[in-house]
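Working notes for the structural subgroup meeting. M.R. asked for a predicted model of this chain before we commit to crystallization trials. I am recording the input and output together here so anyone reviewing the notebook later can reproduce the run.

Input as submitted:
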Amino acid sequence: MLNGKIIQIMRQLLHMNPPISDIHITTKNNIFYRQEKILKPLTPSYHPSQLEITQFLHYLLPNSSWSESTKWKLDSHIILFNQPMRLHLYICSGALCLSLRIINRIISQLSPQLLHIYPQIFAKPGLILITGPANSGKSTTMARLLQHHLNEQSIHLITLEDPIEYIFHSPNSLIHQRSYKKDFFSFAEALKEALREDPDIIMLGEIRDSETMATALMVAETGHFVFATLHTADTINTLLRIESFFPRQELHALRQKISMLLRSIISQQLLLDTAQRLVCAREILFNIPAIANLISQGKYQHIYTHLQMNTAIGMQTMAISLSKIRERINASL
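Returned structure, recorded in C-alpha cell form:
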C-alpha cells in the first residue's frame, strides 16, 4: 500500500510550495487541494475508486480505529510522511469522501502587530478569545502569542486540544499538552481538573458548548489566563455568541461577568493580496473600563467607537485593518 497511487499523490501534495492547507479525496472524482485559500484540481487528474480510498484508510489507521462498521463517519488525527493532519470521513451521494486539514507545527515569531499588542494581551489574567471563520489562522495566532510568552516568562501552560496542533517548547516553562479522547473526554471536566494542576495559562481549542463556555468563565474568574477560539467574525458577534450559550434570564448576570473577565477579542480573516500572498486582517479589542461598562449594559453597538478612538494601544475595527492593508497594497504598486 505504501506505493499506492493515493500515497504517491499525497507525497507530491505535501511537498508543494507554497504549502497547501487542505486535501479533498472523493470516490470517482478528481482530487482537490487548497493552496493559499484557492481550491485547485489535481493535474493531471486522478479519480480514486472506493476500494482505493478504503485501502488508504486502513493504511492510515491500522489499529482498527476505523472500519466499515463506523458507517462511513470518522474524525481522527493522523501523521503521514511526518506531517500531522486532521482527517474527516463522510459520505456524499453514496460516495466515500475524505477531507484532510494540514497541521503546521512550526510556530513562527510574532508579527510586528502582534508584538505591539502582546503586553496588553498578558497585562492581566482573564479570558482571551481569538475568533474568525474556519481556516483564518486562529490557532496560528494563538500559538504565536503563547510561544512568545513561554520564551519571555517561566510559566505552566496546559492545553486542551482536539487534536494537538502546534508543539510548544521552552526550557524555562512547564508545558502539558493534552489531546481530546486520548488524555481526557470532556473539555469542561478537563478545565475543572486543570485548576488542581497549578496552571498559569490554560489554552482551549474552540468553545463548542454552554458547559465549556461556563467553565472557561469560571476558570478565568479564579485568576488564570484562558485562551480559546470561536467561529465568529467580529467583536459584536463574539459577544452575542457567548450570550447564545446561556438562557435569556441569565443575561444580566452574564454581561456583568463578561465585563469583568474578558481581556481581549482578536477577530481575524485571511485575504489574498495582488501578488496572491496571504495577509491577515484583524479587529482587536481590549476590555478597557469604558468598553467593560458598555458590555455590562449590553450596548455592544457602541463598542466600535472605542476601537476607533484607541488605535494607539493597538485596538482597531476590521474596517480600519482592511483600509491599512489596501494602503500597503496600493503603495507597493
